[in-house]
Hints:
Chain A is an alpha+beta fold. Chain A folds into 2 domains: 3-102, Beta-grasp domain (Ubiquitin-like (UB roll), Roll); 105-247, Fumarate Reductase Iron-sulfur Protein, Chain B, domain 2, CATH 1.10.1060. Chain A contains 10 helices and 7 strands.
Amino acid sequence: xxxxxxxxxxxxxxxxxxxxNVEVEANEGExxxxxxxxxxxxxxxxxxxxxxxxxGKCGSCSMEINGKPRLACMTRMSSFExxxxxxxxxxxxxxxxxxxxADVSFNYKKAMEIPAYEHPADLGPGEARMxxxxxxxxxxxxxxxxxxxxxxxxxxxxxxEENKKSxxxxxxxxxxxxxxxxxLDMLKNRKRTAQEEHGLGxxxxxxxxxxxxxxxxxxxxxxxxxxxERVVDVKYDPARWLGSKIRRREG
Amino acid sequence: MTELERYKYDVLxxxxxxxxxxxxxxxxxxGLRVAIICKSLFGKAxxxxxEGGAAASMGNVNSGDNWQVHFRDTxxxxxxxxxxxxxxxxxxxxxxxxxxxxxxxxxxxxxKEGKISQRNFGGHEYPRLAHVGxxxxxxxxxxxxxxxxxxxxxxxxxxGNAEANIRVFAELTITEIIKExxxxxxAYGYWREGGNEVLFEAQAVIxxxxxxxxxxxxxxxxxxxxxxxxxxxxxxxxxxxxxxFLQFHxxxxxxxxxxxxxxxxxxxxxxxxxxxxxxxxxxxFKYIPDVFKDKYADNEEEADRWYLDQDNNRRxxxxxxxxxxxxxINSEVKAGxxxxxxxxxxxxxxxxxxxxxxxxxxxMWHQFxxxxxxxxxxxxxxxxxxxxxxMGGVEVEPDTAAAxxxxxxxxxxxxxxxxxxxxxxxxxxxxDLLVFGRRAGMGAAAYVKSATAVAVSEASVKxxxxxxxxxxxxxxxxxxxxLHQELxxxxxxxxxxxxxxxxxxxxxEKIADIRKRSQNVSVAGDRKFNPGFHLAFDLDNMLxxxxxxxxxxIAREESRGGHTRDDFPGMNDKWRxxxxxxxxxxxxxxxxxxxxxxxxxxxxxxxxxxxxxxxxTSEEIAKGGSN
Amino acid sequence: MSGVFSPSRxxxxxxxxxxxxxxxxxxxxxxxxxxxxxYATFRAFExxxxxxxxxxxxxxSPCLSEACVDEAVIGGFAPISAQIFNFPLSPALIILIxxxxxxxxxYYYRKAYYRAFWMSPxxxxxxEPHKKYTGETRQPLILQNAHRWFFYAxxxxxxxxxxxxxxSFKNKDGEWxxxxxxxxxxxxxxxxxxxxxxxxxxxxxxxxxxxxxFSKHPIRYKAWTTISRLNHSHALFAWISLFAVxxxxxxxxxxxxxxxxxxxxxx
Lengths: 251, 627, 267
């Protein structure tokens, strides 16, 4: 059962651009990405859009649909009203390259700034023993498909370009949390650097990252807030600080 | 036009999936300068789609497991068409590759003793797949991506530049491997973003570009699976081996249409999911081939008992190798017992409690719920075969992953052939790309250290540049999108899961015709992130792959693994000894026969002689392997 | 031009293209929280109608004034504190600092008021009106890190309010065994405060979240699991407990001022 839908697609590049109206067919069970592909194959052969798996697993087709950061492959056409106009734009927190494709290199730079996992020197291949309950917290964060929707929606950088240099963003707060909660990671100062170098304190926990996460990772509750609490342990809690001095180790 | 960008590296890795990243890590750790090319963003490779796990005989769940058993399973799964040495290396080395990932920070699911947990999978005798829920591929990619970041951080500390010795070039397409004086000298390509061209000079090129699924209409592959590496290798003078063997994963989603082809992992069956037709019949019991009769249960009671007691019961037939299950589903649908959308039912909802399903198969639940609006804890899924994996690929030297015939060229992962024979076991792909990714990295490093570099000539650069410019110089030519659709129709209808000689002949002609018309593809717009432009090159690659597949398929007059001939049902001992080698003569793909290497005695002796009798001729049996 | 209007970004003039009623939630939050603040301020300064027949308003507990002196049962606080402080203003002003501080620094309320009051951001993917943003990195917002101390104080208050709820099961003559609507109101308010405190992120962290190896602390892991479940509903408890406490105060006020009669199921 095909029906006609009205799409407003942002077309342009870093110099200029505008929303363009286009009418296209949509079939039962389709998602926004299907419809964009149809536009591409029939009306705009050079419409730029990033996508890979079309199954919500690679996090490539991130864009903003009716103003909300979403994966185009996970937004079903049936979620729109009959006759509703659907506006599709590139991610608005990052520089645009062309049409629906944004320059997300910021995120790869930030990935480079997070110190890597450090394996215990005395544990050889196959010698590691970890309990399931000890790996589960980090496993939640490793579900991340790096769609960067959380980065896009985060007002700290979305609305303040100048904060980009000092703020890693939700995706990398879950990376830090993942490592800090990793049962074997040996690097000890992740809490302190999270606050002092990666801008954890900039986050005002308004939870938009959690709202947009297509993997339903509870970014704020399970990563950012626990990290903020861990930071308090080492930086802002005199009792804990004293305790750690006496026991000579960090939480 | 903007100026040509030029880079010099020791090793160029084309493809940033599991095999490519593993190769890059190895080459870098051998002290070389490495460039990694990804067609899409870093970390988006198709490897992320792998769900079930990575097969490695660690024996954590069942201590009876070891490399010999894994080797046997792999050969059996591949119907003894595998290159024995690859299967041997793979079985021996995969546990170490898994442990290595753990040392790089991967978090696999655990057993009660705190070891890496392993799950059952089709064709594997013991629980063998290291896994993380059902997103194992993502874990692999992320771990290696982060390993590369770690290497870059180290370089940043030592050299003040993170990209001093290993750099990722994201969203870049390689259009050509450049050879000078018969050896690899580099590669040429363009940035997808801006369209400007790039020359890489490198002594060694490792191809790790994955599969060819996009040649087919219904596929689990993403847009990247366009056989780039297969085509690049062919054009560079390498061979492809056994391209007729394509794995149709038995359980792809068939409804709704937008998600058609997307995979339903085998773990759904491993965890207890059963296949039924519209009559409600659990039909797999009818399709157990003779060679598997002693390993698979022939009644529901025993099959169900197996989930609780695996030592004293035979496995449920839902866990037969993929080709068997795919053919069975195909037959059921053809016999009119399929659903209205051309599939059968796969149901876990009546067998496993909802919470357990969500815990063990989280991304499956998620995928069906969000993409299709189906809650698999409450209702059955509709599934059918989808083009999933190509067993055929670049013919390589097993130990070094060096492409035969082209010094300096290496291939690993799905793009390489031989390892899986006529059919790949689930879980053997992730371990394959780790084992041979590493070996390709080692092979390339050894090659670079011993060979002398050759410079890329300006003539080669100009030829490559002209080829990229060509689609823009033609006006009013063919539309790449419609040619691609035409090709997919041809492959789907004529070179698909069930083949016949006459249809294959038809397919070869049609592919040749599309190929001719593709020379005249024109592109609208400019070079900047222009998908129409990109498709023009992908199309060229897919056409070569399709030609190779069709020509190999028409030559093989038997049915085996991922190649089923309606006009030649059943396996034939004679054909087991034959590999099909595709090469490119500059205008078309030529296929010839080549004798399969003989199993050496010590590997031959791992098998029960009666089992081998099912596959081998009496002379082969009498010989008892080579010495 | 900054933020979504930065020159490198896709040029779109709207500050948001959201088509849903994104302003509704912050507006409602603003309305409710603002009303509460107005009411609480009024009550804090009123300094009257907070005690009647073993019912004490949570805003005024522990009782710091001589109004409760005839009921030394109330922790014995009143006579002593009245002398120490000799506080000229309403005692609620001292008490309210703690629960207010707990709520002000609460991770849930922070989200709520940063969005609704400060519009930072007003809603997801809606551009905020501020030129600069430094988050919780400097004074005064860095004090949000003191949440755990308010949490500890909150626990003490929960104990006191629980005590108050128990006391409310006395009749007018000070004998046990009575139950009035007021007792139920206080019990509900105390119970919801406990749920709010226990489901709090700091509580979750303290009880087990800070551990690296759950497997070495099975009991704390169990507790953490339970609290994590409660934590899912922290926002809900935050609102319910707020309404419950406000209603408890209103109820006591009305009873103390004589506007309502506290109905006894049995005396």
